[in-house]
Write a structure and sequence with these properties.
globular, 4 helices, six-stranded antiparallel sheet, alpha+beta, two-stranded antiparallel sheet
């Protein structure tokens, strides 16, 4: 049993059906998504990143696309729903429309794909920046011992940007 199924087994009735519906739509949009956990929530993961989670709280159901930018991109369509920077609140009796869920999941997948493309450009052999630690793109500079040539413990600086 995966993380989502395990989580859904703890919920009954209309709330469970509403949560299952959102996960089913997300799986349809991104068939390569796998069950996992992100930010301590049962979630669908894509390329190792949180694609979407939806959970029941005491007052409502929440959809988490793991991106404030994704929520902002559909904000005009959410006038009937309560939102935060990174979540959308709905209920079994006031569900998110299927098309809206599809747009949210598609936007998050596109965002993850774009991030993956940027990361692969940074790490391709022969690229202008081959940044193995995957942070901000600046090459890592290590201080070496003048006697042994070994990297000094804790000695790591970023090279200045040109």
């Amino acid at each position: 049993m995966g993380e989502i199924d395990a989580y859904l087994s703890t919920i009954d009735g209309a709330d469970r059906d509403a949560l299952q519906r959102v996960f089913a739509i997300a799986r349809d949009v991104v068939p390569d998504a796998v069950e996992g956990t992100s930010y301590a929530m049962a979630a669908l993961l894509y390329r190792g990143k949180g694609l979407i989670a939806t959970v029941r709280t005491t007052k409502f159901l929440s959809l988490y696309p793991y991106s404030g930018a994704v929520v902002a991109s559909v904000l005009e369509e959410l006038s009937d729903f309560e939102t935060t920077t990174g979540s959308i609140h709905y209920s079994a009796h006031h569900p998110l429309p299927d098309g809206l869920v599809r747009r949210i999941v598609h936007a998050r997948r596109t965002e993850i794909d774009a991030t993956a493309r940027q990361a692969s450009r940074r790490t391709e052999p022969g690229s202008a920046v081959n940044d193995a630690d995957g942070d901000d793109g600046s090459p890592e500079v290590h201080q070496l011992s003048p006697t042994s040539g070994q990297r000094l413990p804790g000695a790591s600086d970023r090279s200045p940007r040109a």
